[in-house]
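ok trying this again, last paste got cut off
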Amino acid sequence: MRRCIVFHGTRHPREMGVQEVQQFLTHLAVEGHVAASTQRQALSALLFLYQQVLQQDSGWMDEVVRAKPPQRVPVVLTQDEVATVLRHLSGTTGIMATLLYGAGLRLMECLRLRVKDVDFLYNHIVVRDGKGQKDRVTRLPQTIKAPFQRHLADVKKLHEQDLQAGAGHVYLPDALERTYPHASREWAWQYVFPAAQLSRDPRTGLIRRHHVHKLVLQRAVQAAVRKAEIPKGASCHTFRHSFATHLLEAGYDIRTVQA
């Protein structure tokens, strides 16, 4: 907002309109060579200024020259590189990283897994509200089946301790908490990877145990990649790209695997 005002000679925003905003955003894209995400952020800030603060209808700025998102080739690890990285991970983060690769999960899909969505009998995992708010079924990696079961046994003990302490609540999606008021304390709805500490839900004031923070796994994977001395910009999402690539190389249909 400040940069737009300075760009137009410190004129008050009320004296400017869609044309001035378009000029500024075009300047960012054409002359400033900013990233697409930077221009989108500037556009969102200015829309907020005019629509919410100044209560003006700025219209939909279709004529703005937007910075084009770069088309990058995704980073993919070889099977040996994946195995090397996973060897430098252990415990809970090791299980989580193996799920990212072996089940093709996205980072937040892994963190938001519920107990009820892991089926050891049929060896599959149900991903709820994935990309595009779609559910899908993917396979459970056999290499972590036993340690995964031991992990859930420890999580269940932790949940039982929370219940004894009068807590044990977990966040429920949509309006399920109103429909099923006792479900938030049921074992089936608990997160597979719970946070180490309880926290207060700012919306309800309830003490809940949320899922582990994404930085826990991100930092663990970054450290493992450094220890493995792999000269690639690998991240948590790299495991998903590698999962898809290795299945295609082996002749599998990804849609069939995840159907």
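PB: full thing came through this time. The first strand starts at residue 118 and ends at 119.
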